[in-house]
Every structure is written in C-alpha cells, then in structure tokens.
Design brief:
5-stranded mixed sheet; globular
Length: 147
C-alpha cells in the first residue's frame, strides 16, 4: 500500500483540519463530544503553528487514513523526536500501516531533524507489540500528574 503524506503547517492547515479531527475521533474507542469545541480548535492551531511540533497526515486516494504528531526535544546528549500521538483509521488497522509507513517515516524525519532517537509512550497492548516488533525497547517508566 502506498500512501501520500503531507506535513501540516500554517499555510495548509485549513485544508487538513477536517482530516485531523476525523482521525482524532478514532483515537480512542469512545466518541469525544468536545472534539469540535473551541478548545480543540485552539489546540490544533497551537500544534500546527509550533516550529517544534510536526504533524503528518497520510492519505489513501484522498481519504485520511493515519497521522502522527512528533515534537523535537533537546536531550542531554542529543535531540529526540517524541511521538505525541499515532492514529490509524479504524478501517485501516491491521494492515501494518504503522510498521510499513509510519515508523519508517518517523525514522526519516528524526534523522532530518538531527535527532538521535525516537521516544513515545503507549498504554495500548496492541500498539506496544507493534513498537517492540519494530525495534523500540522499553525505557524508563513514564509518570503523570493530572492537574
């Protein structure tokens, strides 16, 4: 399967905003009633307008099928690409899009941005299996404090 990819930026974000929202609706198994709220629009705008946050959309014949959001972060000895979100449309799951398209693209982008590693967290066992299969190793335990 060959998918077209595009990096969403300030100039083209209006073209892709609907695609992003469509994919984000599928990010979790529950529908988020606030997905179209002003807060979501502000978040999308801030994400797209940031120089350090990169949003990539993948299309199959004009239909949005996957996306990921990565942030370039400085580290002690090198920069890293932190993957904030990976979303594959429900109808495309099981086709190894993450294995064959998204992860190779992440690696290419990390190298392009001068990053020495890719970091991400995942709470979904299926996704964890995909990452392990693609050479990701479990690192430190992530902690979160909800405010």
């Amino acid at each position: 399967m060959k998918l077209a990819s595009v990096e969403v930026n300030f100039e083209n974000n209006n073209l892709h905003r609907v695609s992003i929202k469509e994919l984000l609706r599928q990010f979790s198994d529950t529908e988020d009633p606030d997905i179209d709220s002003d807060k979501m629009n502000d978040l999308l705008r801030d994400t797209i307008n940031s120089e350090d946050i990169h949003t990539f959309l993948f299309y199959d014949e004009g239909c949005p099928v996957a996306m990921y959001v990565g942030t370039v972060k400085p580290a002690m000895l090198s920069r890293s690409l932190y993957i904030d979100a990976v979303v594959v449309a429900k109808s495309y799951r099981g086709n190894r899009i993450t294995d064959n398209i998204l992860i190779p693209h992440m690696k290419e982008m990390a190298r392009e941005y001068g990053c020495g590693q890719i970091d991400l967290t995942s709470s979904k066992p299926g996704a964890q299996k995909v990452y392990r299969r693609n050479g990701f190793s479990e690192g430190t335990v992530a902690f979160r404090l909800n405010l």
